[in-house]
Amino acid sequence: MRVGVQAFDSHEADYWTRQIRIGAAIAGFITILGAVRIALDWDRELRWFGIVFAVAAVFQGACYFLPWRRYVQNATVRRWLVLWWIAELPVLLVFGLKDPAGTDAYLPGAVLVMITLAALYTPQTVIKTGAGMLASYVVVLVASGRDLNPVSLATLVGMVGGVVGLNAVNAYNRRRIDGRRRSVEHRTEMLLEASSDAVLSLGVDGSVWYASPSVRTMLGHDPPSTRADLTRLVHREDLPRVSAWLSEIFGAGLGSTARMETRLRRGDGTWIYLDVIGVNRVADPDVQAVVISLRDIGTRRALEEQLGRQAFTDSLTGLPNRALFRDRLEQAVNGSVDVPVTVLLIDLDDFKLVNDNLGHSAGDDLLTEISGRLLAQMRPSDLLARLGGDEFAILIEDMTTAEAEHLAGRLLSEARRPTRLASRDITSTLSIGIATSLGAGDVRAEQLLRNADLAMYAAKRDGRDACAVFDPGMHHTVLQEAQQRADMERALAEEQFRVLYQPVVDMQTQRLIGAEALVRWQHPRDGLIGPYQFIGNAESSGLIVPLGRWVLRAACQQLASWQRDNPQAGHLRMNVNLSARQFQHANLVDDVAAAVAQAGIAPGALTLEITESMLMQDIDDAIATLEALRKVGVQLAIDDFGTGYSSLNYLRKLPVDTIKIDKSFVDQVHTNAGDVTLVSAIVGLCQALQLQTVAEGIETDEQWKTLRGIGCDHGQGYLFGAPAEAAEVIRLLDEHALR
Predict the structure, then answer these.
(1) Cα–Cα distance measured from residue 571 to residue 733, given in angstroms and rounded to the nearest whole number
(2) DSSP 355
(3) Across the chain, which distance is largest between two alpha carbons, in Å?
């Protein structure tokens, strides 16, 4: 006989165990009653059956204590276990045939067998076993010799058959209910398995009573392996907090909820961040546990950490950014008592020129390279941050000012090492400001950073590629410079600047051949200001570029006006100085071409003056820029020749037209034989290279005569005319025309 078998769960195992033990107890009790009856009422020669019944009773009673929960997990055991109930029928049959009251004893015993059988097996098994019971009952009735007419027999058999049918119906209904329960449980399990969340139930002892299938996906543990103490999976650092949380949720009332985040160990040993929600259902008789849902928040945590890193990390260099530096600076300043806190503020000189000339990608490469060099010179405890653009800062604790200056010297040396960018070697310099706080409360973090900023601008003012230590007197100087920068911006917008013109003459005839444009500032409060009072500030602030562009256009327009209004001015030339920033600016050539075109002058009538030191900073770059300017058609002159570098060897390489001999060689040329020799050498070299010469700063007739005798082509200085308004140039032109 085959018995229908279903997949078992813990609920069914408990049910089968309970029913088998009930059946064993009933069978043992009935069997022992039978043994007693045999001993009391049967014939003496048959009483030995009582021993058999007694042994059977003891055996069935002993079966009560077997570990049925484990046995019934085996489908074969469940299938063949039905023979226990079937074997009871022959025993009852023998008893019914031999016992004087067997007819009455057989029926209740058989019904009990059917009831216990129906509690476990299928309706088909109940019906088949019931058919055997009916047949045995008829045999007992016939053998009893009772006078039963067919109607009475049919009635008894029908009633017993009804009992069998009722048990079969009960077995059917039980299986339907079990099937529905399994379906609901299966559906619930599938939903829980498909859910991204995992669900656990914890007993009052803290052990896991239930774990949804999604635990396997989330934690890498099979649900059964999670049974035991959940805290064994908790990260050691989180364990005290988790234990306190569990105590809180177990001690709360029915339906209370609590939430926390923690880390659990996965099956592969890694850690997973989880959002944990607990609901107290201990007082619910159907649950009697705390129900916990687990949600993986690893992705969210990773995003939060990434956003945190982005909030405090510079994306280009990977260094801490301004926000993190300010936070660390606050902590250092407020936390130090006797430990000095030092800030080095670092600015990369002329970084904008790299972006303009080589592109932003090259600029980014330079910043990355420089940041690596700076970092290599620092101690592990120091903090290097990129504050933005080309500005870096270093936070140092427990370092004297002298040691900070020594560090700054190393940083300056590292920055000077050439960097390969866009197939070219670029030499960079730094300006570094140093400020120190002597202890807690000495100075606020914001003020310390501002002091370092003032020192850094002082280093720029002193020529860059240097460091400066903050001095309180810098406040006044910087305030003045800041005010001047603001005034210059307003002056550019309101055209407060003026251009004066100093004559350039032929050294043989003193005939006017051109003029040099020199900028002045007509300040609304301070009057006319000379270039030495504002050009340096304009250079460091970058305002020199728009100012130089304005001077260039104004000078070209003035030359066009002279030539248009005076026929004798057709031969005049205009000399315009270029600053270092202008010369390195990416749009210089376009600015020059535009100024010439807008004024309508011949390009050859414009001479651009570049200092010797500017050219020598990067000779290859300088040559490329000069060649581009030559293509526009303008003339080129080296100003202040002889003061910066000994660059005579470069003259044959540089595409220039004129050499301007610096005033320092002219001052004593009429009395100092050494100056005469030097100027003669310069003039001779220029003549060999077919370059014109201009002597600057001529103030006396003796100087003029000596220089004329040496062979200088042109000259300028107060002897021929001071810088003056444009009308003075026309007056000089008319005066020469009358000679």
Answers:
(1) 11
(2) H
(3) 177
Give the integer Cα–Cα distance in Å for 556 and 34.
Answer: 136
Helix%, strand%, coil% for the chain, nearest 5? 55, 20, 25
Residues 6+ apart with CB under 8 A from 738: none
Query: Taking the CB of residue 724, how many other CB atoms lie within 10 A of it?
Result: 16
473: which residues sit within 8 A by CB, 6+ positions away?
A: none
What secondary structure, in 3-state letters, does 249-265 show?
Answer: HHHCCCCCEEEEEEEEE
- Can you tell me which residue has the tokens 């300010």? 326
Global pTM exceeds 0.70: no
Tokens of 717: 């200085």
Query: CA 615 from chain center: how many Å?
Result: 44
H helix or E strand, kind and range, residue 361: helix 360-376
Distance CA 88, CA 156 (A): 21
Q: What is the mean pLDDT of each run of 10 residues along the chain (739 residues)?
A: 48 82 82 79 77 83 85 84 80 73 72 81 84 79 69 75 83 81 70 69 81 79 61 86 88 87 87 89 83 84 72 85 90 78 92 80 91 92 91 91 92 91 82 83 82 88 86 77 84 92 93 94 90 84 90 95 89 92 88 95 95 74 89 92 61 86 89 89 89 94 94 94 90 71
Residue 7 Cα distances to 122, 153, 236, angstroms: 14, 43, 39
Among 25, 94, 100, 91, CA closest to 62: 25
Strand partners, 665: none
Residue 41 makes CB contacts below 8 A (sequence gap 6+) with: 99, 100, 101
Does residue 76 contact residue 5 with C-beta atoms inside 8 Å?
no
CA dihedral 678, 684, 685, 688 (to 10 degrees): 180
Q: How far apart are CA 136 and CA 565, in angstroms?
A: 146
Q: CA 167 to CA 118: how far, in whole Å? A: 6
What is the Cα gyration radius of the chain? 54
Instruction: State how beta strands 635-641 and 606-611 pair.
Output: parallel
| Structure tokens belonging to residue 124 | 């088909």
Q: What are residue 293's phi and psi, to 5 degrees?
A: -110, 140
Q: Which residues of 198-218 are buried (b: 16+ CB within 10 A; e: fewer)?
A: bbbbbeeeeebbbbbbbbbeb
DSSP reduced 3-state for 325:
helix
Strand 289-296 and strand 430-437: the pairing is unpaired
